[in-house]
Design brief:
132 residues, alpha+beta, 3-stranded antiparallel sheet, 3 strands, 55% helix, elongated
């Protein structure tokens, strides 16, 4: 039996797609995974499927049947999925090497080449990150 991945591919990009089923309504929710890598897409889709199931169980236990409209359920699912996707891909959007302004990078490099102590360089970095 084939495992359900809720993963679809459009062009070179992958999407997570799952349906909200309610009385007389069967509406799909599709969210881009922002990747063209099949391995990364499978990993993200697996995380989103777990969040979907958790959200669905939470809604079933906390809301009486019929108290949420299909639009409200769709909004709850989309919000939960987008939050998890942002959390799962936060490492991709984190700055790499550009956290220090160029002036502080130059000052740290000059300090290192002139023999200034390691404490001074750490102080430059600490002052930037602490907002001083």
């Amino acid at each position: 039996m084939r495992k359900q991945t809720y993963l679809i591919r459009k062009g070179a990009r992958y999407y997570f797609r799952r349906r909200i089923s309610a009385i007389m309504v069967n509406r799909p929710i599709t969210i881009t995974l922002g990747t063209a890598d099949p391995g990364e897409a499978r990993r993200l889709a697996s995380r989103l499927a777990v969040i979907w199931d958790e959200t669905e169980m939470d809604m079933q236990s906390n809301f009486q049947r019929g108290t949420l409209t299909i639009e409200e359920r769709e909004a709850i699912f989309k919000n939960a999925l987008k939050q998890e996707l942002a959390h799962a891909t936060a490492h991709k959007s984190a700055p790499i090497g550009d956290r220090l302004p160029q002036a502080q990078i130059t000052a740290a490099r000059d300090a290192a080449s002139s023999g200034t102590s390691k404490v001074r360089i750490e102080g430059l970095c600490r002052s930037y990150f602490s907002g001083a």
